[in-house]
Specification:
With 221 residues, the chain is α/β, with parallel strands linked by helices. It folds into two domains: 4-60, no CATH class; 71-218, Zincin-like, CATH 3.30.2010. The chain is built from six helices and ten strands. Strands 4-5-7-6 form a four-stranded mixed beta sheet, with helices on one face. Strand 4 and strand 5 (77-83) form a beta hairpin. The structure holds zinc ion. Zinc ion (ZN) binds at residues 179, 183, 189.
């Protein structure tokens, strides 16, 4: 049932299902196998449930191949990848995502750069407007490579968003921004925090649910 045991200097056991449905156990360096087995057995229901969830999502959204005609999201819309021999090495979005042919690994790199540049441009503008309008102590924006986290915020006024957020529809990005900006005032998820989010994004509860149900579409690579 377990695909990999990763031992490290930690004190507790933990279970994790990776993006391909593999079951990973993290364990302390010297923990006896017997205790690990016992832990796994106690958690079989959890493992099956979460593994199935990942496998179902993989079926729905197969891993990216970065081939011609494949579709990629931008602001919630899908656009096809098109190769043109005479085009630039970088990606441009003109009806389709257009770029010069290259290996899958290189196309993936170009996409990441493209999303990252778009995120920097788009989010800078949105954050500045929001911070000014609601008088928020916002200092710095960082674009991250986080795969399973849509935003985070530090007590020093730094807000982080993954470049993947640019795949999401605009109303969802607006919700994630409102969520992190509200953390500048409340570093918790208290009712007071949610009141701040709601001021900036009245549809936050529906948006949050939508993101939870659809986020797997935007974490592909
Ligand atoms: Zn939060």
């Amino acid at each position: 049932m377990v695909d990999k045991i990763i031992r490290s200097k930690r004190k507790t056991l933990s279970l994790h299902i990776d993006d391909s449905g593999g079951v990973i156990v993290r364990a302390p360096l010297l923990m006896p196998q017997l205790l690990i087995d016992r832990f796994v057995n106690r958690n079989t229901i959890w493992i099956k449930k979460h593994k199935n969830k990942v496998l179902r999502r993989l079926e729905e959204i197969p891993p990216r191949k970065f081939i011609s005609g494949e579709k990629f999201y931008f602001l919630g819309e899908e656009y096809e990848l098109e190769f043109r021999d005479n085009s630039n090495k970088s990606i441009v979005l003109e009806g389709n995502f257009i770029t010069r042919p290259a290996t899958a690994e290189e196309i993936k790199r170009r996409f990441r750069k493209w999303y990252r540049d778009e995120a920097r441009f788009y989010l800078t503008e949105r954050l500045n407007i929001c911070a000014e309008h609601y008088k928020l102590p916002y200092k710095e924006l960082k674009i991250t490579s986080a795969a399973h986290r849509w935003g985070s915020c530090t007590s020093k006024g730094c807000v982080n968003f993954p470049w993947r957020i640019m795949m999401c529809p605009e109303n969802i990005i607006a919700y994630v921004i409102a969520h992190e900006m509200a953390h500048l005032l409340q570093l918790n998820h208290s009712p007071r925090f949610w009141r701040e989010v709601e001021k900036m994004c009245p549809s936050c509860q529906e948006d949050r649910k939508w993101l939870h149900a659809n986020e797997h579409k935007f974490t592909g690579f």
